Amino acid sequence: MSFMIRGLYFIFLFTFLISCSAITQGRIFKKEAGSEVSQKSGSDNVSKAANNSNEPFLPDFSLENLHKAEFSIKNAGIFDKKLDIDPAVKEKSKYDIPIVVTEKVEFYLDLYARRYPQTFQKWLNRSYKYMYIVQDIFLKHGVPLDLACLAFAESGFNVGAYSHAGAGGMWQFIESTGEIYGLKNNSWVDERRDFEKSTEAAAKHLKYLYENLGDWFLAIAAYNGGYYKVIQGIKRYNTKNFFELKKHRFLYRETKNYVPKFIALTILYNNYVKYGFEVPDTSPLVYDKIVLNQPVNLYIIADRFDISVDKLKELNPSLKRPITPPTDSFALRVPYGKGSIVKTALADGSPEDFLGLKIYRADKNESIWKIANKFNTSVYEFKRLNGINYNRILYDRIVFVPNKKLYTAGYYDKFLSEVRPYFPDVYIVKKGDNLYDIAHRFGLSLNDLLAMNKGINPRLIHPGDALVVSRRTDFDYVRVAKNGSAEYVVRRGDTLWGIANRFGTSVNKIMRANGLESAKLMPGNVLVVPN
Fold first, then answer.
1. pLDDT digits (tens, 9 = 90+) for 266-275
2. Please, how many CA atoms are within 13 Å of residue 168, restricted to the half-sphere of its CB?
3. Do residues 368 and 379 make contact, with C-beta atoms less than 8 angstroms apart?
4. Using alpha carbons only, what angle is made at residue 123 by residues 121 and 128, rounded to the nearest 5 degrees?
5. Residue 190 forms beta bridges with which residues?
6. What are the structural domains, with CATH classification, of the chain?
7. Which pLDDT band, with edges at 50, 70 and 90, does 459 fall under?
8. Whole-number Å distance between alpha carbons of 4 and 264
């Protein structure tokens, strides 16, 4: 037995020694082969052996090296479509903020330059109309001009973009932040869509964030994720370096990705020809401004002075209707060279000549016939213009009273489709109704119903009372295009199925319209939603 054990031991030892010898010979062979390949390699072969410089074959992506403005990536042949960050792209004189390159920055460069170039080309074309205005305002406020590229990340330079969370405009201000910087949002205008006023607000906000945080990357993160969120992170982890802070599971994922996305878009904008994009096919907006002391109708202005209505809307995107607000001091933009003519005509004519209607505040239960008779207009056209189906006013509201010259004009039908104020669905109370049953019938909670009908006493409703039973939906936060499609800004948590379901379309249609290869969405992307 001991003889057999001893024999097995010697067989094992012999096998082990032979294996070690083979491994050693293999290493020697590989080393010699590697040396031979190194000698044969030319300009088309890149290897560590061929890298005679002191730099590593691949860039050093450690944080210490990334946080240097002079950092650059060489040996860019590792990318398919020349997604190289070479010295020409990273030249200091091109930028007024540090350009920090991380793997996430490369991801976004690849995303917009190779996977979805049509998206960035569309944004680039749109930006050309506003970029000089944005940079001029940033220069005035002492904000780095490269921060204008934040508008790519926010909305793709879409002044009419809305998110499902209610953020609006090129700079995606929520209503409360917009109010801090004087941006009005009422039934007449949403100044978050005004490319000048919203850019002034963005410049002030970014400057405030930088002055309080001391670093532009932290300021950019706070613009997206909130000032107090960033402050809490700085205190908790005792760092004022964004790239250190993002290592921790504290900032929102959207915020962690927002800064690299901005850096990538800044690089692309400053080097778009190098990355294969075409020169923008749009022209910068050039215009005159007229400060009004009366409301005017864009359709009448366009007809009287041979201006396109679409051009007036493009120059005045804050207007919710083709009518300027009844308050004084609204600054109407008209194409360059038309300002003095329009201004003179407004001064010489009567207000009604350029409005075509009267703006009237109607009281609940007021008779439609009496209003029409009072202003000598057609009851039918009055109802049609205001979307009224009853013979009395069901709730206190603003109504428009058209004159005959307006409703007989050739453009009246187009004007009619755009001017109607928001009017909700209304339910007329019947005998035996109660608020709980009514709310349940329309898919509302009792609190929802009470909030939409302020001042109502739930214990004292009578047959014949009018109750508002519909509320604004996400459709109010989407800019509708001429072809019936819409543009929607993707927010954190959105899915293609959810967006398709919300707008009554299909996932496949959205993917085809946007050239998407997968259903994965990135917050901040602007999707075209087909009709």
1. 999 999 999 9
2. 24
3. yes
4. 100
5. 185
6. 109-158+167-270 (1.10.530.10), 287-419 (no CATH), 426-468 (3.10.350.10), 475-529 (3.10.350.10)
7. confident
8. 70
